[in-house]
Amino acid sequence: MSESRESESGDSKLPKIPEQQEEPPQNDAAADFETAIDSAGFGMFNILLLVAAIPAAMGTVYETSTMSYILPSAECDLQLSLLDKGILNAITYAGMISSAVMWGYLADTKGRRNLLIVGYAADTVCVLGGAFSQNRIQLMVFKYLGGFCMSGPFAVLMTYLTEMHGRKHRQRIMMMVGIMFSIATLTLPGLAMLILPQTWDFHVWTLKLASWQVFVAITALPSLLSFVLFFFFPESPKFLMSKGRNQEAMTAFKIIYHLNSRKPKDSFPIKLLANEVIVPVKKHKEGKDVPIEIKLPMESAEVQDAESQDAKKSSLRSGFTQLRPLFTKPYLGLSLWVYLLNFCVLLGCTVT
């Protein structure tokens, strides 16, 4: 009897042992970015982000398209020649091309949100500078600087939006962004029809403003609004995790989850994020540095600080390393073909 009682008591204790062993791994399992962003859900935060993206898309379209509308009005005021009009039409794109590499490097080192804020603030200043221009040289300089500043937000906006949505909604978001750019393209001629035919003549101190300058000044409003709105959004968790800043990434995930589910931030199901820092590991046989993605839990803040310091030291060198393949085989030939095809497409659109 005593043996049976002991066996029964022993059997009753056995199920408790595996339960205690199974629960901690489920609660403490490190989640990667895709798992965490899917757990944050889709809701109010994503809707607010799309609303903020509307003026951002409008600012991008306005920066690159206003010249074609104001040249007939500004031709007499600035005494533009045929060559001047051609330069004004192209100089914005020259600024975008000359700064594309720089903005790509800054987006991967300084963050998406910071670049959007700085880019749209700088574009607002450049657009207003173009609106107050009193001669063709000033207008050319500000249009070049406007293209130089807009190249970053134009590309990073897409990246930021995709990284703030889960896999289920990511493709639909890109379709909606395309619709935003189309709507922005349609609003510009309507705005030009309302303002440019007016015979306005304003004097601000020693500056003389015509209707076309008022039109250019109004097109700065979307960039100004985007500059203000992006202050209220967090940094991309994808970028933060790639830099080892998992605590900040967790805070961003909790904000998204809180707005989408209307639940407390502490109820976010993910409790630990994986380390997605890409660490170059040297192969001794070949003597090459191969980036290997390590996904392990972050154990302490000291590890994050050490990795962030190493990333800052090697960021410039890694940026040039990433550009090197564009100028070597086999990518050089393929890149030249793509550039040529794109040039022919744009040339055909211009001729037609």
UniProtKB/TrEMBL annotation:
Q: Which GO terms describe its molecular function?
A: transmembrane transporter activity
Which cellular component, as a GO term, is one annotated location?
A: membrane
Coiled-coil ranges per the record? none
Q: How does it sit in the membrane?
A: Multi-pass membrane protein
Q: Where is the composition biased (Basic and acidic residues)?
A: 1-16
Domain Major facilitator superfamily (MFS) profile intervals: 49-352
Region described as Disordered: spans on this chain:
1-29
Q: Where in the cell is it found?
A: Membrane
Specify the superkingdom. Eukaryota
Pfam families from the entry?
A: MFS_1 (PF07690)
Keywords from the UniProt entry = Membrane, Transmembrane, Transmembrane helix, Transport
Please give the start and end residues of each transmembrane region: 42-62, 87-107, 114-132, 144-161, 173-197, 209-233, 331-351
> Know the name of this protein?
Synaptic vesicle glycoprotein 2B isoform X3
- Which organism is this entry from? Drosophila rhopaloa
